[in-house]
Amino acid sequence: MSSKRVALIGFRHEAMISCPFLTDPSTTQIHRGGEMRQVSYSPVSGALARLDEEEGFEAVPLLIARTLPGGPFERSFYEAIKSESLVLLKEQGPFDGIVVLNHGAAEVDGFNIHGDTDYILAIRALIGPEAPIAVPFDMHGQVTPEILDAITVLSCLRTAPHRDYFETSYRAADQLIRVMKEGLSPKKAAVRIPILIPGEMAMTAYSPTKELFAKLAEYDARPGVMEAHLFIGFGWNDRPWAGMEVVVVSEGDQELAVRYAKELAEEVWAHRKGFALYMETAGVREGLVRAAEADCGPVYLSDSGDNVTAGAGGDLTFVLQEALDLGLSDIVVGGIYAPDIVEACRNGRAGSQVRLDLGRHVTATQKPRSVDAIIEAYGESLDTSSYPDLRGSQAPWCRVRIDGVIATFHAARVGLTGLGHFKAMGISPTEHKIYVVKLGYLHPQIEDVAHRHICLISEGLGDLDYRRLPYSQVIRPVYPLDADMEWSAELGLFSVERSRLST
Asked: Where do the Microcystin LR degradation protein MlrC C-terminal domain residues begin and end (predicted)?
C-alpha cells in the first residue's frame, strides 16, 4: 500500500501595519524542499518529526518563508510566495494532507483581507474540500472564521516567551495523522473575546495567563476533545479581526466544541483586569541608571517601543543617546537599523575613527546628533546558521565603539533574539554589564542568561499601552479601550463545520 503524502508549506509572518518598512526579501529567508530538513527551525522540524515517526506516511517539505516581523508584506512579494506555493502543491501533488506552517498575524500591503486567510483559502481552493489541513499557529496570530472553515485541525503555542515551537508543530501533525487514520470529522467552535493586550501583558510565567494556559491541557484531556486553544492575538493592528480568541476542536461533536469554547472564553473574560506588565519596567533614563547601579550583570534592557519582534522599525536611537548622555560604559546597544551608518563604516578599517550621524529616525521624531566612533568590526552578512532557530541577515552590519558604548548598526532590520546573534558579531552575550535589545519580553536564550531584565517603556511603534493607539477599524466595544463594557461569550461565538459558518 502506498504511503499517505503530506505536504509542508507556508510562511511565518507577523506584521505591524503601522511599520513603514514593508516585508520583502531583505528580511525573509526562504527554504525549499530538502533544505527544510537541513535548517534548524522548530516550526518545521516538529511536524517533520511526527510525520517521520508514523509508518505509512511520507512528509513532503515544499517551502517555508520565514520573515522578520515588520510592516505588511510588499504585495508583489507576497503574491510571488503564494503563487510558488500553489505551483508546488499542484506540480508535486496530489497530497493526502497538508501542514500549512503559518504564524497567523500576516498582513499584505493594500489587502483588506487577513494575509493568512487569503493564503489558506487559496490552498483550500486548489486542493479541494477533502484533503485535511493542519496549522501550527503562534498565540499572537489571529484566526478568522474563514480560516476555521478552510482548515481541519490546528495547534497553537502555549508559552510566552515561546519555548514550544517544536511541540506545537508536532501536535498539529499528530492531529492530522489521527484525522487521516481514524476518519475523524473534527468540529470547531471559536469565540472572539473583545480584549486587546500586547504579549508582554500575557506572559505565561505570570497569573492569570499561567493558569489559563495550564487549563488547556485539562480541556485536551476531556473525552471527545482534540485540542483547546487560546490566542492572545495581535492588538497593535487596527483590523476588524484583532483581539483574543479561544478555539476548541472536538472529534466530531459540534455541541461539545461550542460548550467548551464558551466556557473557556468566559473564564478568560473574567480575568481581563489581571492582564498587566508584571516584569520589571522603567523609563529609559531610569532603567539605564538602575542597570548601571546593579550589583552584577548581565542586565538586559529591552527597548519595548522599538521592539522589532513585534514589527516595530528598529531604527530608533533614543536609548543609545541616553546611554551616551549618562556617560555609561561596559554597555552594548544592539540591532539598530541604520543603512547610512553601515555604509559610512563600509570602507573603514578596524580601529579607525569615523563621524556618524545618529537620530535620523523614520518611525518616530528625529533626534539628530553627530558622534565620533571607532570601528571595531564590519560584516557583509550576519550568519547565524550554526545556531538553532536564529534568523540571521544577508545584509551588512557594523560594530562601533562610541565613548564607553558598543553599538551595532545594520543595513537591514534584524532582531537580536539569541546568544548566537551577539557571537556572530564578535560580542560576548554575557561578559558585559549591560545589554540593550530591541525586544519586549526577552526571548528564551537571552532570558536564560540574563541576571536581570528591565523592560524600558520607550518611544516607538511598539507602544505597550494600547489605549494610546488611534483605532478606527477594531470592533468596539473592546477592553481596555471601553473599560466598563459588558460582554458574554454568546456574543463572540462562531461555530464551524465543513463549508458552513454560523455566527
From this structure: 301-472
